[in-house]
Amino acid sequence: MTIESNRVTDSRSNTILDRFCIEILPQIHDKVESLTLQACFLPRVLHATNYLHLRKLVIINLELSMACHIFNEKSPFIHVFKEQISELILTIGDEILDESNVKLLTDIYNRIFGLFTNLKYLDLDGDDTYAFSRSLLTGLSSTTCCSSSIVHLRIKMQNIDDCLYLLDGRLSQLHTLIINLDYIHDPVQIRLRSSNIIRHSLKIMNNL
């Protein structure tokens, strides 16, 4: 099911969405397995009914402020869906033009890796003007990363060193890794941790 509009404040679109949430969604809620929607519609759609069989969620144009609210261990969203969602696709709508926003986004992604316990497919997309700092996953220890069940990951990273943090063993079930690499240089981490990286990389290859 896809709910999308380019005119968020259009009264006609809001009227249609209200009717959809009040009259239609409650009748089909037990059949909804996938939702694709603009982030601005997310609260209204999720509050309309219970989605007992929802497994795939695609959120488009997600603002950082809303992401901080949603991906919080105390939020109703996490309480309901942390064990239910197996496929999560996010498109960040904000331009990431300064280091503070990069740190904020990194924190949000750390929460995603740490809070969802049954995540299999994770696609993290955003504006091409930013690159992640190396701290994307280092805030999570390999023993506390709940999303070790991930088998497919697509993400934008800063350089090869950053990519290697994904191969430290925490994502033991991973078999597909798609990375938009911002910068290629001589990878320091390969020299410093070559044996561990090779061992965990072989584990991932065995999952293919």
Describe this structure in words.
With 208 residues, the protein is α/β, with parallel strands linked by helices. The protein has one domain (55-206): Leucine-rich repeat, LRR (right-handed beta-alpha superhelix) (Alpha-Beta Horseshoe). The chain contains 8 helices and 7 strands. The longest helix has 18 residues, at 11-28. It is globular. The model has no long low-confidence stretch (mean pLDDT 78).
List the helices and strands and how they pair.
Layout: E1 2-3, H1 11-28, E2 34-38, H2 42-48, E3 56-62, H3 64-70, H4 76-81, E4 87-92, H5 99-115, E5 121-125, E6 152-159, H6 160-164, E7 176-183, H7 188-192, H8 194-206
Parallel strand pairs: 1-2, 2-3, 3-4, 4-5, 5-6, 6-7
Structure in a nutshell:
With 208 residues, this protein is of the alpha/beta class.
CA-based shape? globular
Radius of gyration: 18 Å
pLDDT under 50 segments (min length 5)?
none
* Number of H/I helices: 8
Largest sheet, in brief, is: 7 strands, parallel
- Tally the structural domains: 1
Order of helices and strands, N to C?
EHEHEHHEHEEHEHH
- N- to C-terminal separation? 30 Å
Question: What class would the helix/strand composition place it in?
Answer: alpha/beta
CATH domain class name = Alpha Beta
Strand content: 15-25%
Features:
seven-stranded parallel β-sheet; Leucine-rich repeat, LRR (right-handed beta-alpha superhelix); 208 residues; globular; 8 helices; alpha/beta
